[in-house]
Amino acid sequence: MIRSFVAALVLSLFVAGSASAAKVDVSKLQLAGDITQAQAEIVLKGALAKAVDQGVPMNIAVVDAGGNLKAFLRMDGAFLGSIDVSIGKAETARRFNMSTAALGAAAQPGGELFGIEVTNGRLVIFGGGELLRDANGVIIGAIGVSGGSVAEDTNVAKAGVAALEKAVKAKK
Protein backbone atom coordinates (compact mmCIF):
# COMPACT_ATOMS: atom_id res chain seq x y z
CA MET A 1 0.00 0.00 0.00
CA ILE A 2 2.81 2.40 0.86
CA ARG A 3 4.54 1.50 -2.41
CA SER A 4 1.38 2.43 -4.34
CA PHE A 5 1.21 5.74 -2.50
CA VAL A 6 4.88 6.51 -3.18
CA ALA A 7 4.51 5.56 -6.85
CA ALA A 8 1.44 7.80 -7.19
CA LEU A 9 3.26 10.66 -5.46
CA VAL A 10 6.32 10.32 -7.71
CA LEU A 11 4.09 10.18 -10.79
CA SER A 12 2.15 13.27 -9.75
CA LEU A 13 5.39 15.18 -9.09
CA PHE A 14 6.73 14.11 -12.49
CA VAL A 15 3.56 15.22 -14.27
CA ALA A 16 3.52 18.53 -12.39
CA GLY A 17 7.22 19.01 -13.11
CA SER A 18 6.69 18.24 -16.79
CA ALA A 19 3.92 20.80 -17.03
CA SER A 20 6.06 23.51 -15.49
CA ALA A 21 9.06 22.49 -17.62
CA ALA A 22 7.00 23.18 -20.73
CA LYS A 23 6.89 26.86 -19.73
CA VAL A 24 10.67 27.23 -19.45
CA ASP A 25 12.39 29.64 -21.82
CA VAL A 26 14.42 27.11 -23.82
CA SER A 27 16.67 29.85 -25.20
CA LYS A 28 18.23 29.97 -21.73
CA LEU A 29 18.99 26.24 -21.95
CA GLN A 30 20.73 26.40 -25.33
CA LEU A 31 24.52 26.46 -25.12
CA ALA A 32 26.26 29.26 -26.97
CA GLY A 33 28.10 27.88 -29.99
CA ASP A 34 25.74 24.94 -30.44
CA ILE A 35 23.49 24.25 -33.40
CA THR A 36 19.84 25.09 -32.82
CA GLN A 37 16.89 22.96 -33.82
CA ALA A 38 15.98 25.53 -36.47
CA GLN A 39 19.49 25.40 -37.93
CA ALA A 40 19.50 21.59 -37.89
CA GLU A 41 16.21 21.63 -39.81
CA ILE A 42 17.74 23.96 -42.42
CA VAL A 43 20.64 21.54 -42.84
CA LEU A 44 18.27 18.57 -43.20
CA LYS A 45 16.11 20.37 -45.76
CA GLY A 46 19.11 21.39 -47.87
CA ALA A 47 20.54 17.89 -47.77
CA LEU A 48 17.16 16.31 -48.50
CA ALA A 49 16.66 18.49 -51.57
CA LYS A 50 20.01 17.35 -52.99
CA ALA A 51 19.28 13.69 -52.21
CA VAL A 52 15.93 13.94 -53.98
CA ASP A 53 17.63 15.69 -56.91
CA GLN A 54 20.15 12.83 -57.13
CA GLY A 55 17.36 10.26 -56.85
CA VAL A 56 19.10 8.35 -54.08
CA PRO A 57 17.40 7.65 -50.73
CA MET A 58 19.69 8.74 -47.90
CA ASN A 59 20.07 8.69 -44.14
CA ILE A 60 20.98 12.18 -42.95
CA ALA A 61 22.26 12.86 -39.42
CA VAL A 62 23.06 16.18 -37.75
CA VAL A 63 25.04 16.30 -34.52
CA ASP A 64 25.54 19.24 -32.19
CA ALA A 65 28.82 20.83 -31.14
CA GLY A 66 29.35 18.03 -28.62
CA GLY A 67 28.83 15.33 -31.23
CA ASN A 68 25.38 14.35 -29.91
CA LEU A 69 22.60 13.50 -32.34
CA LYS A 70 20.44 16.60 -32.88
CA ALA A 71 18.36 15.67 -35.94
CA PHE A 72 17.95 12.66 -38.18
CA LEU A 73 16.07 11.81 -41.34
CA ARG A 74 15.79 8.44 -43.03
CA MET A 75 14.30 8.82 -46.48
CA ASP A 76 11.88 6.16 -47.64
CA GLY A 77 13.88 3.28 -49.08
CA ALA A 78 17.22 4.32 -47.54
CA PHE A 79 19.42 1.43 -46.44
CA LEU A 80 18.88 0.37 -42.84
CA GLY A 81 22.60 -0.34 -42.58
CA SER A 82 23.36 3.26 -43.45
CA ILE A 83 21.61 4.66 -40.38
CA ASP A 84 24.62 4.03 -38.13
CA VAL A 85 27.03 5.01 -40.90
CA SER A 86 25.43 8.44 -41.33
CA ILE A 87 25.49 9.09 -37.58
CA GLY A 88 29.08 7.83 -37.44
CA LYS A 89 30.14 10.19 -40.22
CA ALA A 90 28.66 13.19 -38.42
CA GLU A 91 30.24 12.16 -35.11
CA THR A 92 33.61 11.51 -36.75
CA ALA A 93 33.68 14.88 -38.49
CA ARG A 94 32.93 16.63 -35.20
CA ARG A 95 35.33 14.55 -33.10
CA PHE A 96 38.26 15.39 -35.37
CA ASN A 97 37.11 18.82 -36.63
CA MET A 98 37.50 17.84 -40.27
CA SER A 99 35.54 16.20 -43.01
CA THR A 100 35.51 12.43 -43.03
CA ALA A 101 37.11 12.56 -46.49
CA ALA A 102 40.07 14.56 -45.11
CA LEU A 103 40.44 12.16 -42.19
CA GLY A 104 40.25 9.21 -44.58
CA ALA A 105 43.03 10.66 -46.73
CA ALA A 106 45.29 10.92 -43.65
CA ALA A 107 44.36 7.37 -42.62
CA GLN A 108 45.57 5.63 -45.78
CA PRO A 109 48.37 3.04 -45.53
CA GLY A 110 51.59 4.91 -44.90
CA GLY A 111 49.67 7.97 -43.72
CA GLU A 112 50.10 9.63 -40.34
CA LEU A 113 46.72 8.40 -39.10
CA PHE A 114 46.73 4.92 -40.60
CA GLY A 115 44.55 2.66 -38.44
CA ILE A 116 42.68 5.46 -36.67
CA GLU A 117 39.31 3.97 -37.60
CA VAL A 118 39.86 1.13 -35.14
CA THR A 119 40.73 3.39 -32.19
CA ASN A 120 37.26 4.74 -31.40
CA GLY A 121 33.77 3.33 -31.72
CA ARG A 122 31.88 4.23 -34.88
CA LEU A 123 34.59 6.21 -36.69
CA VAL A 124 33.95 6.50 -40.41
CA ILE A 125 36.82 7.60 -42.65
CA PHE A 126 35.27 8.06 -46.07
CA GLY A 127 33.35 11.00 -47.52
CA GLY A 128 29.94 12.16 -46.39
CA GLY A 129 30.73 13.81 -43.06
CA GLU A 130 31.13 17.60 -43.01
CA LEU A 131 31.44 20.28 -40.34
CA LEU A 132 28.76 22.91 -39.70
CA ARG A 133 29.85 26.44 -38.72
CA ASP A 134 28.18 29.61 -37.51
CA ALA A 135 28.65 33.11 -38.98
CA ASN A 136 31.96 33.48 -37.10
CA GLY A 137 33.35 30.18 -38.35
CA VAL A 138 32.81 28.42 -35.02
CA ILE A 139 32.00 24.72 -35.36
CA ILE A 140 28.44 24.23 -34.13
CA GLY A 141 27.94 20.64 -35.28
CA ALA A 142 28.34 18.30 -38.22
CA ILE A 143 26.32 16.44 -40.83
CA GLY A 144 26.73 12.83 -41.87
CA VAL A 145 25.10 11.26 -44.91
CA SER A 146 24.98 7.65 -46.07
CA GLY A 147 23.01 5.70 -48.62
CA GLY A 148 24.64 6.29 -51.98
CA SER A 149 28.12 6.29 -53.41
CA VAL A 150 30.76 8.23 -51.49
CA ALA A 151 30.46 11.04 -54.05
CA GLU A 152 26.65 11.12 -53.70
CA ASP A 153 26.89 11.13 -49.90
CA THR A 154 29.43 13.95 -50.03
CA ASN A 155 27.27 15.99 -52.41
CA VAL A 156 24.29 15.68 -50.08
CA ALA A 157 26.34 16.56 -46.99
CA LYS A 158 27.82 19.62 -48.72
CA ALA A 159 24.32 20.71 -49.78
CA GLY A 160 23.30 20.64 -46.11
CA VAL A 161 26.34 22.76 -45.23
CA ALA A 162 25.56 25.19 -48.06
CA ALA A 163 21.94 25.55 -46.91
CA LEU A 164 23.12 26.54 -43.42
CA GLU A 165 25.74 28.94 -44.80
CA LYS A 166 23.09 30.60 -46.97
CA ALA A 167 20.73 30.98 -43.99
CA VAL A 168 23.52 32.39 -41.80
CA LYS A 169 24.49 34.95 -44.47
CA ALA A 170 20.86 35.96 -44.96
CA LYS A 171 20.58 36.66 -41.24
CA LYS A 172 23.49 39.13 -41.27
TrEMBL record:
Residues 1-21 form the signal peptide. Gene3D superfamilies: Haem-degrading domain. The keyword DNA damage does not apply. InterPro entries: GlcG_carb_metab_protein, PduO/GlcC-like, PduO/GlcC-like_sf. Keywords: Signal. This is Heme-binding protein. PANTHER family: PROTEIN GLCG, SLR1406 PROTEIN. It comes from Candidatus Desulfovibrio intestinipullorum. It comes from the Bacteria. The keyword Ligase does not apply. SUPFAM superfamilies: GlcG-like. Pfam families: HbpS-like.
